[in-house]
Design brief:
Elements lengths: L1 E7 L11 H14 L6 E6 L7 H6 L2 E4 L8 H12 L7 E6 L4 H12 L3 E5 L15 H6 L1 E3 L21
Parallel strand pairs: 1-2, 1-4, 2-3, 4-5
Antiparallel strand pairs: 5-6
Organism: Arabidopsis suecica
InterPro entries: Marf1 (IPR024768)
Protein name: NYN domain-containing protein
């Protein structure tokens, strides 16, 4: 199944010093390690942008600039995109990188009640102060949980863990 990551840059911006080239492969490898082997897409929302849009695109991160200034605009836009994916006719997994917001969590609860797989990826600490974000596969796995609790670990020997930073 395809996994789509919905990333709120307002809550968890990518630090300016982060190596963008590591983010996609580390998330993809972590998903493989957890038993999710389909295509990966990353969609980002918000105006805390420390990299230009072309650099994000080259790193396989689609940035949605259609967020209006104001309270919770990013959350509403991201939540709307999540709901729009319900219309797809193929199985899909959802991964969310965002802090708790009542409307977002209501929608995620609805997805879970429809037997959709919803993963939460919560980076540790203040991401704006970090030199790297998700520096290795295990850092992604450690920060991921299934919506509603639990760890989604289904390690497969067919997809060994590889750290793109360490080699």
């Amino acid at each position: 199944d395809e996994t789509v990551v919905f990333w709120n840059f307002e809550d968890y911006p990518i630090p300016s010093s982060a190596n963008l080239d590591l983010i996609y492969p580390n998330i993809e490898s972590a998903l493989h390690k957890m038993g999710f082997h389909g295509h990966l897409s990353i969609m980002a929302f918000g105006d805390k942008l420390y990299h230009d849009i072309d650099a994000l695109s080259m790193a396989n991160i689609a940035y949605d600039p259609e967020v209006s200034p104001g309270d919770d605009s990013c959350v509403w836009r991201m939540t709307g995109e999540i709901v729009s994916f319900l219309a797809v006719s193929f199985p899909m997994n959802y991964m969310v990188i965002a802090k708790q917001h009542p409307e977002l969590y209501r929608v995620l609860h609805c997805l879970k009640s429809r037997n959709q797989i919803v993963l939460l990826l919560e980076p540790p600490g203040d991401t704006a102060q970090q030199d790297t974000l998700f520096p290795c596969v295990d850092s992604v796995v450690d920060c991921t949980k299934v919506f509603g609790g639990g760890k989604p670990i289904h390690e497969s020997k067919a997809y060994p863990s590889y750290c793109y930073r360490c080699g």
